[in-house]
């Protein structure tokens, strides 16, 4: 019993020493058919860690303004940006099914599935200075 308690304490101490992943500010502009895409959500989902199904860290999220501009924030934290590494990018104008609440989703999705539910978009966040990720999407 004593050995298992010691092992548990060591595991807890080691996990507490794990450093947070590096975060870099990321912003940009989203256009659809050459026009600013307002009120769209932009999500960066980190790729899984090597030999794992666990993500390298939290996803990031931003909402475009009337000019299509957005800035990412880590989900669940008050930190601007995205973690360093490869990301799958999802851009949509309606909420994801898991986020839908009552009548909060009005209208149909204006952004093709290849940019959201079947996203082909990726972005590599590199350590250092703030990064710009602009997207010029096509409806056809």
Explain this structure.
This protein has a single domain (22-137), classed as Sandwich (Immunoglobulin-like), CATH 2.60.40. 11% of the residues lie in helices and 33% in strands. It has one helix at 2-16; strands at 23-24, 26-32, 35-36, 41-46, 60-63, 69-71, 73-74, 82-83, 85-92, 121-125, 131-132, 135-137. The strands form three sheets. Strands 2, 3, 6, 11 and 12 form a five-stranded mixed beta sheet that branches. It has a five-stranded antiparallel beta sheet with strand order 7-5-4-9-10, with no helix packed on it. The model is unreliable at 1-18 (pLDDT under 50).
Count of discrete alpha- or pi-helical segments spanning 4 or more residues: 1
Order of helices and strands: HEEEEEEEEEEEE
Q: Note the main sheet.
A: 5 strands, mixed
CATH superfamily: Carboxypeptidase-like, regulatory domain
**What separation lies between the terminal Cα atoms?**
64 Å
The secondary structure category is: mainly beta
DSSP summary, beta strand count: 12
Radius of gyration from CA coordinates: 18 Å
Domain module tally: 1
**Parts with pLDDT < 50 across at least 5 consecutive residues:** 1-18
Task: Identify the overall geometry.
Answer: globular
Going by CATH, the architecture would be: Sandwich
Which descriptors apply to this entry?
single chain; 140 residues; mainly beta; Immunoglobulin-like; five-stranded mixed beta sheet; 1 helix; 11% helix
SSE order and pairing:
Layout: H1 2-16, E1 23-24, E2 26-32, E3 35-36, E4 41-46, E5 60-63, E6 69-71, E7 73-74, E8 82-83, E9 85-92, E10 121-125, E11 131-132, E12 135-137
Parallel strand pairs: 2-11, 2-12
Antiparallel strand pairs: 1-8, 2-3, 2-6, 4-5, 4-9, 5-7, 9-10
């Amino acid at each position: 019993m004593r050995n298992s308690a010691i092992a548990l304490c060591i595991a807890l101490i080691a996990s507490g020493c794990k450093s947070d992943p590096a975060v870099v500010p990321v912003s940009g502009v989203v256009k659809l058919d050459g026009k600013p895409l307002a009120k769209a959500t932009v999500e960066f989902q980190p790729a899984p860690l090597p030999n794992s199904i666990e993500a390298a860290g939290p996803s990031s999220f931003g909402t475009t303004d009337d000019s299509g501009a957005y800035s990412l924030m880590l989900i669940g934290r008050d930190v601007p940006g995205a973690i360093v590494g490869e990301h799958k990018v999802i851009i949509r104008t309606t909420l994801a099914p898991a986020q839908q609440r009552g009548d909060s989703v009005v209208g149909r999705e204006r952004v093709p599935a290849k940019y959201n539910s079947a996203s082909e978009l990726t972005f590599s966040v590199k350590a250092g200075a703030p990064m710009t990720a602009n997207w010029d999407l096509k409806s056809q």
